[in-house]
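pipeline: protein-struct stage 2 | run 1193 | ABC transporter ATP-binding protein
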Amino acid sequence: MDAIRAESLVKNFGETKALDQASITIEKGELFFLLGASGCGKTTLLRCIAGLENPDSGRVLYGDRDVTGLPTHKREAAMVFQSYALWPHMSVGENVAFGLEERKVPRKEITQRVDEALAMVHLEGYNDRRIDHMSGGQQQRVALARALVVKPKCLLLDEPLSNLDAKLRLEMRREIRRIVKENNLTGVYVTHDQEEALSMADRMAVLDAGRVVQMGTPNDIYRNPLSAHVAGFIGETNLIEATVDRIVRDDDELGLSVSSPMGRFNGRISRRGWRPKEGSKVLVSIRPEALFVDYSGVPINRIRGKIKDRMYLGSHIQYRVAAAGDHLWSVTETNPHVIREDGDDIVLTADPADVIILKA
Ligand code: ATP
């Protein structure tokens, strides 16, 4: 199967606009994430791609084939749900076989394909075990096997790890990526967990109020958010209001000098084609880990403040630093040698490459 495209999808539920001209292209073999705050429309978009929901307008294409209006099993797609949707009274084998029986696949072939699907999720030999005798992580693997057994080209996953504990979630992140890649599937995955998305995705789309506001690789979206909304949703950031003083660099990237109540900052824009004018209002975004503590190597972008409080976490420490009145900065220092006390003076600096100037 070639790329999956959603073109200008609109979906209303009464007064609620769940999708508002949402468009995405997912390349063949990609593990693609839909991400956004609760109610932004990501599940509705996944369900339209799956054939579980029909858009009011717009099209869904699998390659050149317009599949809008077709049910899931006619789209070469299989869905894995948050709740697993397994039959608790049936055995593992019976659960996995269910979709094949519905499709009237011959018994001998069913046995062979169930064994293959269980092997893919590393559950060989579990055929006769009852579902309610399987752990949460094993049940999730059965749900994956049940989706894989129909040999889909596209695997659709709706918050598949939400019911697992933290350790299993980490393990299953690797597993799901392995399964998608080993079977040459195109995966579309909905989550509100940004760490899950950053660690697993080839590319992702961030949605807001039914619209796709940014698409890109995890690193691109993290380092080059196009808006304060995306900067604040994907990871943590410090946002401050500022005014453009002048352009300091204009080559492949536009570098700006801006002034704020916290002082002057040199930074760069993340949005090609946007040229804020001198005197215009902007927002400055600096990630907590981009702030160096008491480091003299960067002569510009200095912030002087006092430590308000700290959280020591071994590998790193998180400070909240009060500067210029009440403004609180989040600062993350990795591998801390010195633990600073509340009320201590502190100087923070940031590399201009890590100071992102955004539309206000
Ligand atoms: P969450 O992370 O909370 O699951 P989401 O981003 O997946 O949210 P959707 O489930 O797609 O969001 O919902 C988008 C909007 O459409 C929400 O306001 C939701 O209440 C509404 N909505 C979704 N499905 C229905 C439905 N079947 N009937 C009425 N409203 C719905």
